[in-house]
Amino acid sequence: MTTQIILAFLIGLVLSAGIGMFLVPFLRKIKAGQSIREVGPTWHQSKAGTPTMGGIMFILAVTVAVLALGWPLTRSGDWGHVFVLIFALIYGAIGFLDDFEKLKHKQNLGLTARQKFLLQLAVAVAFIYLLRLFGLLHASARPHCIDVFIPFWNRVIPVNEVVYVVCAAFIIVGTVNAVNLTDGVDGLATGTSLPVFVFYTALCFFWGRRYLGLGIFSAALTGALLGFLAWNFNPAKVFMGDTGSLFLGGAVVATAFAYDIPLILVTLGIVFLWETLSVIIQVGYFKLTHGKRVFRMSPFHHHLEMGGWTGKKWKEKELFCLFTFVSALFAVISFMGVQARF
Q1: Full residue range of the structural domain in which residue 153 is found
Q2: CA separation (Å) from 225 to 20, 162, 260?
Q3: Could you give the CA distance from residue 148 to residue 150 in angstroms, rounded to a whole number?
Q4: Residue at 271 is within a domain
Q5: Angle between helices 80-105 and 241-258 in degrees, nearest 10
Q6: What's the Cα-to-Cα distance from 320 to each of 154, 187, 280, 317, 325, rounded to whole Å?
Q7: Which residues of 308-321 are buried (b: 16+ CB within 10 A; e: fewer)?
Q8: What's the distance, CA 318 to chain centroid?
Q9: Alpha helix locations (H) across the chain?
Q10: What pLDDT was estimated at residue 114?
C-alpha cells in the first residue's frame, strides 16, 4: 500500500511540473491570458495577460496516476476513487467552459451564475446517488435513512435519504464555489488545498487498505498540486483558472463524501468557509446599511491585501504562508476529529 501511495505522489508531482513546460508556452502562444476585474486591487492589473487554464496541468497528472495505479482496484470492485475523479473532472469541464467563454469574449465574465449553479447542482445530486447505489454511504438501521458521522463526538445520526441528498447537494456546490473564491491570489487555492489532500492521504494509512483507491487519488493530487505550485507561486507564471479551481473544489468535497465524513469540511475547509462567509457578510452588511462595508474588500484575502483593519498591506507571499498554515493547522485538528470513525 505504501509503495502505491508514494508512486501516486511521484507521478502526480513529475507529470504536473513536466506538463507545465509545454502547457504554459502553449497558453501564451494562443494568448489564453487572464482578464483582471477592474473592481479588484489596482496592482492586480499588472497580471493581465498571464496564461490561465493552468489547472489542466494537475488535472491531467492526477488522472493518469489514478487510472494507472487505481485500475486493479476498480477491477476488484472499488469504485470510490473513480467516482471522485469523474465528479471532479465534470466540475473541471464546467470551469473550462467558463474559462473558454471568458477568453472568447476577452473579459472576466463566463457562464452565468444560474447556468453554473444548475449544472453543478445536477452533477452533485447524481454523485450522491452513485455513492448511495454502490454502498459508499453508510445506510442507517432506520429504513430510508443514511447515517451521518459527527466529527469529534464520534456519533452517527440517521438522516432521511431525501433530506440527505438535498443538503449534500448544496454542501457540494457551496464548497466547490468556496474553493473558487479562494483562488484570487497567486498560489492561494493551491497552498490551502495541499493540507486537505495530505489529510485525505493520511486517512488511507490510518483506516487501511479498504480506502487505498481514495489514498491513491489524494496522494496523486498532493503531488500534482506541488508540481503546479512551481508555476503558480508568486509571481505566478500561470493561473489555474476556473478549470482548475472547480476541479479542485470538486475533489475536496467529493473525497470527503467518499470517505463518508462530509461534516469534517467545517474544520478541514475552514479557510474556504471563511472566504465565503466574508463575501456573504460583506454583501449582506452593504445592503442593510446602504453602502457601508465590514471589509475593505471581499473575499477576506483581498481585505488583508488592501490593509485590513490594521493598515498593514499583506503581500501575496505572506497571504500564501498565512492561509496555508491555517489550513494545515485545521487539517491536523480535523484528523483528531475522525480518528475514531472506524
Answers
A1: 2-263
A2: 12, 35, 24
A3: 6
A4: no
A5: 160
A6: 33, 7, 22, 5, 8
A7: eeeeeebebeebbe
A8: 21
A9: 2-29, 56-75, 80-105, 113-133, 161-182, 188-207, 212-232, 241-258, 265-268, 270-288, 300-305, 316-338
A10: 83
Residue 150 within any structural domain of the chain = yes
Per residue in 215-267, pLDDT (tens digit) is 999 999 999 999 999 999 999 999 999 999 999 999 999 999 999 999 999 99
Length of the chain: 342
Rounded to whole angstroms, the Cα distance separating 268 from 203 reads: 13
Residue 192 lies in a domain: yes
The domain total for the chain is 1
pTM: 0.94
Is 331 a member of any domain?
A: no
Quick one: CA torsion of 332, 334, 337, 340, rounded to 10 degrees?
-80
Return the C-alpha cell found at 194: 495541499
Q: Which amino acid does the sequence have at 204?
A: C
* Residue 103 predicted with pLDDT over 90: no
Rounded to 5 degrees, what angle do the CA atoms 65, 66, 67 make?
Answer: 95
How far is Cα 235 from Cα 281, in angstroms, rounded to an integer? 30
* Confidence band of 1 (pLDDT split at 50, 70, 90): confident
